[in-house]
């Protein structure tokens, strides 16, 4: 019995030694991206036209609006080490490197990146939408993402353009709750570098981390805010929503006649030159 | 995947048994010669990268008529693109599975090899990119390419047809897209009375047709130009607007306000067989359509300049309309319809 106690003590001692040693540091760990969708910091509650629960926002132009549906695609994720090295995360594989954030599905608000090399990271880059070279609704290559995006309650396929919807927002605006419907997606045709027609709605986002994300024995969580106040009141445009019959006004909130889709896209995804954050910011990094 | 494994296994067997002079099963497949008809423009350059072959075209035609492409096995390409209607149909808007109604009028499929833009809004520039659209669209076939491939594999007879058409590659998504495009490249209509008159093959216009041709050259040819009878431009000509909020015309692709409710100028070939007319079948007959153009069209900021300069109308007397319709019927290619 005494022997056993000593033995147990030895085991405990050796365990504590092991856990103290540098050899125990994993070569990689997870990084969790946590998305919080807000109107100027207030987490969005979705609701239909009669909802009293829904978070109501007011645009710079004085239009009240709220959302019933809110989805967007995040892909092309890259973490940047403090030394500047970029660690791409399955950027050419939509099945393992892209996700649909859906405000109505809590589980989609967190996206776990696995096997991120142990190191310190000071910046994150990702795409809002799908890079044009992958944006072909290629079910053969990426059956999982195709299925997730195309599910009946998700509807992120843009069939006629054989691409993905990048953002899908349904909601209501003005006090009489007129329908608001914003879908973004690319209509590019041709090869990269020599596009022959269409518009690219993909936006590359770059965010500096306020504190370094330390990947190692812990897997940090990077908390990202997407502030949808930017949709109408962004860095690029202050948009007034108008009805579909008036397409010459600032913006048309209908699904596919949104001739001014790019204004909304620039607001939430940045203009790729002076604004590379769009509606996104880092709330905090939890190490 | 299963097929790939099977092929690998097959290759291994072949290699294993053979001497040095090992021969992989090769499929003999010859190219189909498509002549450019008299006066027609050059091919779309993609024709040269997806050259129609005997087996490719054969497979494409079979797939074009294959209802397994739709979720409930009821709709094929040919359901809306019927040969007797110059590969268009008689519905105002396309009708898919379970009677679901689409956004637009099914366009005819003819002389595709010479076109540079496909669909009413020119959303596709290569024919090979098009077949997936109806396959996955809710209002059309509402299926998916993997679902289609699985059904074709289960059907049994397709494996060999794909192998013959695409050098033993088995049933693939690209094989589906490419073979259907190859078949469509062969659908060329250039044997109407008009063509025979132009080629001086012994036919002559009647007096009325000749008078109609004069009207055509005076009032239609600036848009319906070339031997394709379209200049392939996008124009808003003030036709009644599709009330569907999905519709934006060419602007849906370009996102240019100037393209709002602009549509690709359709070919006039075989127009006798393709009623109703307009992007969502606004007009039941050619007479209705010409009456509308004569009476005056809807105004718009981006209304075509030709109409703007003419008080938003194309004035036509009743006789001119009758003559014009007589001429348009000379564009009917019975050989193409019956083939």
Automatic annotation (TrEMBL), chain A:
Keyword Flavoprotein: no
Keyword vocabulary terms for this entry: Signal
Signal in keyword set: yes
First and last residue of the signal peptide: 1-21
Protein's name in the database: Copper-binding protein MbnP-like domain-containing protein
Highest taxon of the lineage: Bacteria
TM region positions: none
Domain Copper-binding protein MbnP-like: 29-238
TrEMBL record, chain B:
TM segment ranges: none
Signal peptide feature range: none
InterPro entries, per the entry: Cyt_c-like_dom, Cyt_c-like_dom_sf, Cytochrome_c_Peroxidase/MauG, Di-haem_cyt_c_peroxidsae, MauG/Cytc_peroxidase
Family matches, as Pfam families: CCP_MauG
Domain Cytochrome c as annotated: residue spans: 55-156, 207-332
Post-translational changes noted in the entry: Binds 2 heme groups per subunit.
GO CC field: periplasmic space
Enzyme class: oxidoreductase
MF-aspect GO terms: cytochrome-c peroxidase activity; electron transfer activity; heme binding; metal ion binding
Gene3D superfamilies: Cytochrome c-like domain
Compartment(s): Periplasm
Its EC number(s): 1.11.1.5
Primary subcellular site in the record, as a coarse category: periplasm
Name of the protein: Cytochrome c peroxidase
Lineage: Bacteria, Pseudomonadati, Bacteroidota, Flavobacteriia, Flavobacteriales
């Amino acid at each position: 019995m005494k022997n056993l106690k000593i033995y147990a003590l030895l085991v405990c001692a050796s365990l504590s030694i092991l856990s103290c040693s540098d050899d125990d540091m994993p070569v990689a760990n997870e990084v969790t991206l946590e998305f919080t969708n807000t109107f100027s910091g207030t987490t969005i509650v979705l609701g239909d036209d009669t909802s009293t629960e829904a978070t109501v926002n007011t645009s710079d132009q004085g239009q009240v609006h709220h959302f019933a549906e809110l989805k967007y695609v995040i892909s092309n994720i890259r973490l940047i080490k403090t030394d500047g090295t970029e660690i791409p995360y399955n950027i050419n594989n939509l099945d393992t490197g892209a996700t649909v954030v859906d405000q109505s599905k809590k589980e989609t608000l967190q996206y776990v990146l696995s096997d991120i090399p142990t190191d310190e990271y000071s910046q994150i880059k990702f795409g809002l939408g799908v890079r044009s070279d992958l944006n072909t609704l290629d079910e053969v290559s990426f059956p999982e993402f195709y299925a997730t995006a195309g599910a009946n309650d998700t509807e992120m396929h843009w069939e006629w353009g054989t691409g993905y919807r990048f953002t899908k927002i349904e909601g209501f605006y003005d006090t009489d709750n007129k329908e608001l419907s914003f879908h973004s997606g690319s209509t590019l045709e041709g090869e990269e570098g020599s596009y022959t027609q269409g518009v690219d709605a993909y936006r590359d986002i770059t965010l500096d981390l306020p504190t370094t994300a330390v990947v190692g024995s812990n897997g940090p969580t990077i908390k990202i805010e997407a502030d949808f106040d930017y949709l109408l009141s962004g860095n690029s445009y202050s948009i007034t929503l108008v009805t579909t019959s008036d397409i010459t006004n600032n913006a048309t909130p209908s699904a596919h006649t949104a001739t001014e889709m790019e204004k909304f896209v620039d607001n939430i995804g940045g203009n790729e030159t002076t604004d590379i954050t769009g509606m996104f910011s880092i709330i905090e990094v939890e190490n | 995947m299963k097929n790939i494994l099977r092929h690998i296994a097959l290759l291994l067997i072949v290699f294993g048994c053979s001497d040095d002079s090992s021969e992989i099963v090769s499929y003999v497949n010859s190219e189909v010669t498509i002549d450019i008809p008299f006066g027609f423009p050059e091919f779309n350059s993609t024709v040269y990268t997806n050259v129609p072959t005997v087996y490719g075209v054969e497979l494409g035609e079979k797939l074009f008529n294959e209802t397994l492409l739709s979720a409930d096995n009821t709709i094929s390409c040919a359901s809306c693109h019927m040969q007797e209607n110059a590969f268009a149909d008689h519905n105002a808007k396309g009708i898919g599975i379970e009677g679901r109604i689409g956004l637009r009028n099914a366009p005819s499929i003819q002389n595709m090899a010479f076109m540079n833009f496909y669909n009413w809004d020119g959303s596709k520039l290569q024919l090979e990119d098009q077949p997936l659209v109806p396959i996955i669209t809710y209002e059309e076939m509402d299926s998916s390419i993997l679902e289609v491939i699985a059904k074709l594999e289960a059907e049994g007879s397709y494996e060999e047809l794909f192998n013959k058409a695409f050098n033993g590659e088995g049933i693939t998504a690209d094989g589906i897209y490419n073979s259907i495009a190859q078949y469509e490249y062969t659908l060329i209509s250039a044997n109407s009375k008009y063509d025979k008159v132009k080629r001086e093959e012994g036919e002559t216009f009647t007096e009325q047709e000749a008078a109609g041709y004069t009207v055509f050259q005076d009032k239609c040819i600036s848009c319906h130009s070339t031997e394709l009878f379209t200049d392939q431009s996008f124009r808003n000509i003030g036709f009644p607007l599709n009330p569907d909020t999905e519709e934006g015309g060419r602007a849906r692709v370009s996102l240019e306000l100037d393209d709002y409710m602009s549509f690709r100028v359709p070919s006039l070939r075989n127009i006798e067989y393709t009623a109703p007319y307009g992007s969502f079948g606004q007009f039941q007959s050619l007479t209705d359509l010409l009456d509308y153009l004569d009476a005056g069209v809807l105004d718009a900021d981006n209304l075509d300049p030709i109409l703007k300069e003419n008080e938003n109308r194309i004035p036509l007397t009743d006789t001119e309309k009758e003559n014009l319709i007589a001429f348009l019927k000379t564009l009917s290619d019975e050989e193409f319809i019956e083939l």
